[in-house]
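User: Modeling request: complex.
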Amino acid sequence: MITQKEITLPSYSRGFHLVTNEILRALGELPEQGLLHVFIKHTSAALTINENADPSVRDDFEPSFNKLAPENAPYYTHTMEGPDDMPAHIKSTLAGSSVTIPVSNGRLNMGTWQGIYLCEFRNQSNRRKLVLTLYH
Amino acid sequence: MITQKEITLPSYSRGFHLVTNEILRALGELPEQGLLHVFIKHTSAALTINENADPSVRDDFEPSFNKLAPENAPYYTHTMEGPDDMPAHIKSTLAGSSVTIPVSNGRLNMGTWQGIYLCEFRNQSNRRKLVLTLYH
Amino acid sequence: MITQKEITLPSYSRGFHLVTNEILRALGELPEQGLLHVFIKHTSAALTINENADPSVRDDFEPSFNKLAPENAPYYTHTMEGPDDMPAHIKSTLAGSSVTIPVSNGRLNMGTWQGIYLCEFRNQSNRRKLVLTLYH
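Assistant: Request completed. Predicted assembly structure:
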């Protein structure tokens, strides 16, 4: 069986944000066993799974990703949409456009310290669209 | 239900290439609802989802990934297959070996600006094999 | 049909390790056709698919990932758990928390040179938990 739902997240500032609860709320009751696939319909934002407890981890992701895909690199030719645009595309490929998570005993079977991050790479806030697909 | 198909892409030069249409052509009619999983059977190429409109984005990925995994790094020991080989392995892990995309209303439910990239990391062109798996 | 199993890997030292056989042993007989999803329940380790033959590839991943997420970066604020902790979180997002692999003709349909890597990013060895989900 497949259940699918499209949601629009609230607007988030540039950075890394926990959105596990937003996703769980949209899904309602989970099946006993299955897989949840979460897909982001954008190329300048991403989804990843990482530490859900200490906000300093999410803070440190921001300068770390800026090092990996710096603004104003001399070899960028795609510069029309601003200095944060091309880095955002590269970061979205590094982090990934979807996460897939097992569902077991009616809940997301992540580790104690895992949560789903929305990675917002643009300076201007956007309301990002996600597609949630449950296989069970 | 599962539908699975193996395809061989045409040869692409080193760089990032849109292959959404090649994949759609191989699949034929899509189910109303489901998930498409696309897997690349190689470790020196990758798949990712990114901007499908302006070719300058794909151009800028090439120097950006070369910075992330430079050729001739002094700590490489796996050098027998040429200077582009070990960087290709690292890049393939950074970008990923598969993409999973929701299918809704009989079409790939990506954002307007999203497309599937084949990332070819070797200097010598190769014909890359993909496994397409549809769940519906 | 869904088959799901949770396993605990043996302890591995910091670095990149082939675990394809550990996963196959836990699964037993594979279905004719389907998908295998392997999920790691941790945020300082990761899973990826890469070269399964020459151990020098796995060796070279270690310094390469250390360059991508260096220890003691001046902008880290999450430093309480040691200098290897924050880099481990970044590396886990770069490599990814799960891999999905097609199953065809009763076997994992990877390329000849592909294997599943456990990426252990902490200095202290850990026994990592995986959730294996088979769709068929």
